[in-house]
Amino acid sequence: MQETPFCLRVGHLLPYSMSDSNTTDFTNPSTFILLGIPGLEAAHVWISIPFCTMYIIAILGNFTILFIVKMEPSLHGPMYYFLCMLAISDLVLSTSILPKTLSIFWFNSREINFSACLTQMYFLHCFSTMASGILVAMAFDRYVAICDPLRYSTILTNPLVAKIGLAVVLRGSILVLPTPFLARRWTYCRTNIIPHAYCEHMAVVKLACTDIHISSYYGLSVVFFVTGLDVFFITASYIQILRAIFSLPTKDTQLKSLGTCSSHLCAILAFYIPALFSFLTQRFGHNMALHFHVLMANVSFLVPPMLNPIIYGVRTRQIRDRLFRFFSHKGT
In the 3-class helix/strand/coil scheme, how is the chain assigned residue by residue? Predict the structure, then answer.
């Protein structure tokens, strides 16, 4: 049974085929071997250049967002608190993948401990689920700001923002927790070679020599629960937002109100489009090479953490102005 991706990009859970030549008599190996980008081993150093660039941009950009929001009192509001949550999830998400991937590309360090592999798997899916939940919270923020602006400060109070953040963290932590525990239950005897650059869920459990339908069914149930609910709430919020915007009397006010949502809409597209593209190539691109699927899976995890701080830095005037003031002060 092929499985759809976990919260679209919460995990590319489609199985990867292994050749018989890689089948060896292993019994619960303590370490696994990550191949990186299978078939493109000779180009690993060149592939590492854009990967490393995206990682550096993601780290610097998201830390800059956190720094600016912390240092600027006027940004201490619900929208920017949610943005900080998204920045933290992006930092953890990209750091869960890139250091190990770059060590494979640069130093041929392919081994990963079984417990470390399961930990990486958990962090990837957990923080991807959290990122999706944060986008829902940001959609609710925009809904209140546009549809009920006079009550914005009384509805989205700091205690409510904290409760929403806690709910997002608990949902991601609890829903994903069974995934590594189920993977640990299986007996592994096929091989210890994972044809991937990181511990992708189905690439790992497909190495088990026991029935793994529980893992597949659980992953599918989380897909429908997380992705279905999140997309539904985001869509419902923006239907109400668009109705409120188009009921405004002038084009200028309509464009101004729509502009306050542009950053969030770009973040949604940056989150879901790479994951959707990766899913479609894995689901329907059966004639595509394995290295293309693995590359797309990696890119779908790296693009949103890189783009989000750029989107909010460019599109949000308060962040842009604070950044300019900071550099002009340094220059003076």
Answer: CCCCCCCCCCCCCCCCCCCHHHCCCCCCCCEEEECCCCCCHHHHHHHHHHHHHHHHHHHHHHHHHHHHHHHCHHHCCHHHHHHHHHHHHHHHHHHHHHHHHHHHHHHCCCEEEHHHHHHHHHHHHHHHHHHHHHHHHHHHHHHHHHHCHHHHHHHCCHHHHHHHHHHHHHHHHHHHCHHHHHHHHCCECCCCEECCCCCCHHHHHCCECCCCHHHHHHHHHHHHHHHHHHHHHHHHHHHHHHHHHHCCCCHHHHHHHHHHHHHHHHHHHHHHHHHHHHHHHHHHCCCCCHHHHHHHHHHHHHHHHHHHHHHHHHHCHHHHHHHHHHHHHHHC
